[in-house]
Amino acid sequence: MCLDFYAVSNIIKAIRYWENVTCLEFENSPDVTDSEDFIEFFQGQGCYSMIGRNGGRQGISIGENCVKSGVIEHEIGHAIGMWHEQSRPDAQSYIKVESDFILPSYVSDFLQRDKDIDTLGLPYDLGSVMHYGSTAFSVDQTSKTLITRLIKGPPLSKHNWPKGDSIIYRHRNHQQGLLFR
């Protein structure tokens, strides 16, 4: 099944977002071959992408409830190598994970990844596009799965543009443009 006009429009918005805040350039290339590295958006069962450039086709699933541009921005973030902000080694200093309220199949999305994530000394960003909202994957859609430890700060459900330091990280890790179809 093909992605509808609304989904494609929001994919384009999400791509423009990353092009505006990084040095990345995306090129729509329907004739790309499987021997090239490329991103392909498809209508799947849910919202997901592998993390980082894996070589060849990099699929980004845009399921029925994933067509908002912020969700697509998040999934593109994974494709360009970003982990969830709440998975950083220092996350517990900024948030508390309420595991009892997380749907069992999503608990791993909230685990700290000490060996996988290099923060490069960048500050924790509660409003990152890569940070889950406060009720993400809640068993009842209202119980908080993430609670901020800070008195002041952006709400967890509102994402900010990446800060300058995090853009440097993205520039360092992606020196060439990305193809998509």
UniProtKB/TrEMBL annotation:
Active site annotation, chain numbering: E75
Q: Cofactor note from UniProt?
A: Binds 1 zinc ion per subunit.
Q: Does the keyword Iron apply?
A: no
What InterPro entries would the database entry show? Astacin-like_dom, MetalloPept_cat_dom_sf, Peptidase_M12A, Peptidase_Metallo
Q: Which CDD domains match?
A: ZnMc_astacin_like
Q: Which residues bind Zn(2+)?
A: H74, H78, H84
Pfam families, A to Z:
Astacin
Q: Which GO terms describe its biological process?
A: proteolysis
Give yes or no: UniProt keyword Disulfide bond: yes
Q: Which GO terms describe its molecular function?
A: metalloendopeptidase activity; zinc ion binding
Organism this protein belongs to: Teladorsagia circumcincta
- Limits of the Peptidase M12A domain: 1-181
Task: Name the Enzyme Commission number(s) assigned to this protein.
Answer: 3.4.24.-
Name the needed cofactors: Zn(2+)
Protein name (record): Metalloendopeptidase
Keyword tags: Disulfide bond, Hydrolase, Metal-binding, Metalloprotease, Protease, Zinc
